[in-house]
Amino acid sequence: MHIDHINIAAPLELLEEVRDFYCAVLDLRDGFRPAFSQRGFWLYSDDKPLVHLSERDITHAADKPGYLDHVAFQTSGLEAMLARLVENDVSYRASHIPEFNMSQLFFKDPAGNGLEVNFPNES
Asked: Is residue 55 within 8 Å of 15, Cβ to Cβ?
């Protein structure tokens, strides 16, 4: 089993900001999305729609409290990611796991969702 995609549901104005953030910082691209009843975006990594953004007319984060802390992505290009974070004025925390030889970056998107990006064999 693997995670197919994540979905973020928010008002359209916030989704546009989230879309721009994921494209600028995570280097995803806005791509094809079926004609669903609500507006939104699908953001692609290569040929996979990894992040789905769905319009919802909600004024608060969720009806029920949630416990999802963050979503993690694995990629390469640590230095390029660091440059995009700085260029986009994104606060982040970096760490390194020597046992896995993996660098990690932690930050939040404009909707407040926690993100982790892992870079195996990069330091």
From this structure: yes
Q: Give the CA distances from residue 16 to residues 9, 66, 79, 85, in Å, rounded to whole numbers and listed in that order.
A: 11, 23, 26, 18
If 0-12 CB within 10 Å is exposed, 13-18 middle and 19+ buried, where does residue 41 land? buried
Question: Radius of gyration over alpha carbons of the chain, in Å?
Answer: 15
What the chain holds in terms of domains, given with CATH numbers, is 6-57+69-120 (3.10.180.10)
Token digits of residue 48: 């996979």
What's residue 2's pLDDT? 83
DSSP 58: -
Distance CA 3, CA 17 (A): 24
Query: pTM of the prediction?
Result: 0.90
